[in-house]
Design goal:
alpha/beta; Double Stranded RNA Binding Domain; 3 helices; 27% helix; disordered N terminus
Length: 141
């Protein structure tokens, strides 16, 4: 009897659709910090669209870089590419997530800072930073 009630309840309760999320990465998917943030979003929310511009009618989120430095080099712009052509990865990163719902309501999360003194920022370190940003931002999804 309990199994029949469970089946009936499952059949009458619609499944909740996964949110549609657009991750905005100026410079595209290869932009600095885009891949670690996309992976963290996928792990938490499912499918993520990566784009270099926000879309209409979908929830969009992007990382706003407040400070990025390695040694004496400082690059305070978001969307800076990392890789062989752009020099070494940095040891300091500070910023927050900004989001906009499909209905136009916008918000931001708290600023978090990551500092690594004994190595450059690698994918594992950036992945943990992305997880922390999502944990503390509380996206309205």
């Amino acid at each position: 009897m309990a199994a029949a009630a469970l089946s009936l309840l499952s059949a009458t309760t619609p499944a909740r659709a996964a949110p549609q999320i657009r991750l905005v990465c100026p410079g595209g998917p290869e932009a600095f910090f885009c891949q670690p943030l996309a992976a963290a979003l996928r792990a938490r929310y499912g499918a993520v669209i990566v784009s270099d511009s926000p879309g209409n009618g979908v929830f969009s989120v992007h990382f706003v870089t407040e400070a990025r430095a390695h040694g004496t080099q400082s690059e305070p712009q978001s969307g800076i590419k990392s890789g062989p052509q752009s020099g070494p990865l940095v040891g300091h990163l500070s910023g927050h997530l900004a989001w906009r719902r499909a209905d136009g309501v916008a918000g931001t999360g708290p600023t978090l800072t990551l500092s690594v003194s004994d190595a450059g920022l690698n994918d594992a370190i950036l992945g943990r930073f992305a997880d922390d940003l999502l944990r503390f931002t509380k996206l309205p999804l």
